[in-house]
Amino acid sequence: MSPNKFFKHEGPWSDANDPLMCSDTGDWRSKRPVVDKDKCIFCGFCAIYCPIQVMEMVENSYFSPDLAFCKGCGICAKECPKDAISMEPEGDFKK
């Protein structure tokens, strides 16, 4: 028997017919990703591995996080093969 007979969705997130729930970060994030545009080779690994898909293309030359939704998990920085993303303390930035 096919599992789709019993379950509406194949995976845990979405079947691409329903919108995903997006919540803004608020003020609880402790670190944010900072992209060094000169080191970025535009490979897209940060966007692929970001669990909430907040990495956006900028001018077809580098990726940058949408900080309104970024949770600060640091996966993008860990997956970047050129160390172009660093996690900086949130307190270093003026609000």
From TrEMBL:
Ranges where the 4Fe-4S ferredoxin-type domain occurs: 31-60, 61-90
Domain of life: Bacteria
Cofactors, names only: [4Fe-4S] cluster
Gene Ontology MF: a single term: metal ion binding
SUPFAM superfamilies noted in UniProt: 4Fe-4S ferredoxins
InterPro entries from the UniProt entry: 4Fe4S_Fe-S-bd, 4Fe4S_Fe_S_CS, PorD_KorD
Keyword Metal-binding: yes
Pfam families hit by this protein: Fer4_21 (PF14697)
Protein name, as recorded: PadF1: phenylglyoxylate:acceptor oxidoreductase, subunit F
Lineage per the UniProt record: Bacteria, Pseudomonadati, Thermodesulfobacteriota, Desulfobacteria, Desulfobacterales
